[in-house]
């Protein structure tokens, strides 16, 4: 795993400082985090590196606690751990810090059982976060999932024929079967079956969980460059705030994009009329009747600044060619804002990159986006000049978001929020 780390300086400083708060009275993790916050800038670390070291020192015991005290077969345990680590890079850093810290305690503390639990927690978290898993492990698990799904569909009242079942099982690549739970896989199969019976190039379904104050919108259509960006832009224009998203390209060239969205007030984005207008907006964006980028810029000028502007989220763009055997992985951490996802994905399209998988998550004011991309030839992006161009382009978008001017009304609201 250490070969996949992009921030070795962060790792080394975290290992150096993680126990510096011991012997000072109180929780040594919290005390150590405060000390690290003062020391890291003096060591020459930038804002992102400092924040990450502070986070690692604060949480350096939490991976052991989760691995040894939670049921790793419980999806909620993995979900809670993802909410803690938030990004794949943090997960890698925390795993290594946890292992070296545990092994350094004494000669009889580390054992195979602890190694197995930590390894299982790491892989399950990474798989859920990114849909990516080691080859042999992934293929075996994917086969089990497909067999279970086939049994469910064969006994369902939807009249699945053997040829139809075989065709559906051939549509998903290995990562797809690991990226969704069984309820979603069944729902996807039913959606694709209904779409095949319907004329038209766009099929959209909405599932709302009122208790969770969130709506799940699935868009199924033919894949093409810029598709994800246009959908994200249309959603932003419709007042749908994307809090999570996963994009999958099936083997037949169809895109199965799932978005978890809320309305402006933080509630579920539901209602037949609103969903119909959203579908119309997405269709207009896909057919070129509207340009989401232009419309978002107009809308942004009319709106007052967001209250989240008072929060500081150190920006970071990581381009990683070791985390996946087939794609280049781009991890972006920045402050969230309306239209950010559209701008990022449109930039990736403009750079000639195909998004083969995307995992977008919002943690309050922080947006954490992970994209698996390939170049126009379906290969990894491994040229240093191209990687630097990607990093510079994406950082420019993030910097523009951070430094965007706000009007007096927004500044007044933000100052009041900061005071409160």
From the structure above, extract its key features:
420 residues, 53% helix, alpha+beta, 8 strands, disordered C terminus, 16% strand, single chain
Quick gist of this model?
It contains 17 helices and eight strands.
Description:
- It is globular and about 70 Å long.
- An 8-stranded antiparallel β-sheet has the order 1-2-4-3-7-8-6-5, sandwiched between helices.
- It contains 17 helices and 8 strands.
- The chain has helices at about 10-15, 30-45, 45-60, 60-70, 75-85, 90-105, 110-130, 135-155, 160-170, 175-180, 180-195, 225-235, 270-285, 290-300, 340-350, 385-400, 410-420, and strands spanning about 200-210, 215-220, 240-250, 255-260, 315-320, 330-335, 355-365, 365-375.
- It is of the alpha+beta class.
- Mean pLDDT is about 85; it is low at about 405-420.
- About 55% of the residues lie in helices and about 15% in strands.
Record the SSE blueprint.
Blueprint lengths: L7 H10 L10 H16 L3 H12 L3 H8 L5 H11 L2 H18 L6 H19 L4 H20 L7 H8 L4 H6 L2 H15 L5 E8 L4 E9 L4 H11 L3 E9 L4 E9 L9 H15 L5 H11 L13 E5 L7 E8 L4 H11 L3 E10 L2 E9 L9 H19 L5 H12 L1
Antiparallel strand pairs: 1-2, 2-4, 3-4, 3-7, 5-6, 6-8, 7-8
Structural class comes to alpha+beta
Q: Roughly how many Å is the radius of gyration?
A: 22 Å
**What kind of oligomer do you see?**
single chain
Distance between the termini: 42 Å
Q: Helix-strand pattern, N to C?
A: HHHHHHHHHHHEEHEEHHEEHEEHH
Number of H/I helices: 17
Give, in spatial order, the strands making up the sheet with the most strands. Answer: 1-2-4-3-7-8-6-5
Spans of at least 5 consecutive residues with low confidence = 405-420
Overall shape: it is globular
Number of strands: 8
Q: Describe the main β-sheet briefly.
A: 8 strands, antiparallel
Q: Tell me the fraction of residues in β-strands, as a range.
A: 15-25%
- The average pLDDT value, as a whole number, equals 84
Roughly what percent helix?
Answer: 40-55%
């Amino acid at each position: 795993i250490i070969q996949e780390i992009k921030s070795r300086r962060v790792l080394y400083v975290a290992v150096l400082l993680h126990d510096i708060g011991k012997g000072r009275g109180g929780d040594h993790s919290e005390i150590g985090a405060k000390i690290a916050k003062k020391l890291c800038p003096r060591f020459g670390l930038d804002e992102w590196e400092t924040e990450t070291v502070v986070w690692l020192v604060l949480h350096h015991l939490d991976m052991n606690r989760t691995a040894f005290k939670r049921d790793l077969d419980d999806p909620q345990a993995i979900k809670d751990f993802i909410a803690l680590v938030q990004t794949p890079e943090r997960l890698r850093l925390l795993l290594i810090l946890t292992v070296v810290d545990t092994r350094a305690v004494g000669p009889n503390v580390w054992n195979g059982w602890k190694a197995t639990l930590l390894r299982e927690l790491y892989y399950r978290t990474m798989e859920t976060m990114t849909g990516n898993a080691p080859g042999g492990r992934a293929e075996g698990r994917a086969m089990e999932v497909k067999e279970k799904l086939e049994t469910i569909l064969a006994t369902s009242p939807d009249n699945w024929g053997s040829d139809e079942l075989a065709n559906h099982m051939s549509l998903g690549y290995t990562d797809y079967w690991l990226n969704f739970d069984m309820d979603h896989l069944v729902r996807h199969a039913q959606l694709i079956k209904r779409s095949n019976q319907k004329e038209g190039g766009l099929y959209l379904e909405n599932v709302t969980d009122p208790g969770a104050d969130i709506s799940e919108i699935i868009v199924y259509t033919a894949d093409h460059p810029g598709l994800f960006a246009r959908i994200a832009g249309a959603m932003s224009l419709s007042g749908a705030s994307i809090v999570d998203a996963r994009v999958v390209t099936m083997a037949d060239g169809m895109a199965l994009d799932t978005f978890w969205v809320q309305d402006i007030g933080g509630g579920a984005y539901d209602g037949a009329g609103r969903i119909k207008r959203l579908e119309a907006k997405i269709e207009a964006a896909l057919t070129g009747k509207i340009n989401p980028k232009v419309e978002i810029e107009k809308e942004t000028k009319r709106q007052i600044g967001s209250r989240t502007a008072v929060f500081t989220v150190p920006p970071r763009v990581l381009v990683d060619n070791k985390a996946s055997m087939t794609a280049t992985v781009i991890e972006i951490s920045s402050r969230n804002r309306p239209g950010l996802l559209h701008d990022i994905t449109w930039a990736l399209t403009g750079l000639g990159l195909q998004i083969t998988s995307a995992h977008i998550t919002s943690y309050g004011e922080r947006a954490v986006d992970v994209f698996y991309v390939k170049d126009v030839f379906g290969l990894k992006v491994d040229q240093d000049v191209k990687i630097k161009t990607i990093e510079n382009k994406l950082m420019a978008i993030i910097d523009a978001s951070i430094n965007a001017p706000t009007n007096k009304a927004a500044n007044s609201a933000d100052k009041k929020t900061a005071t409160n």
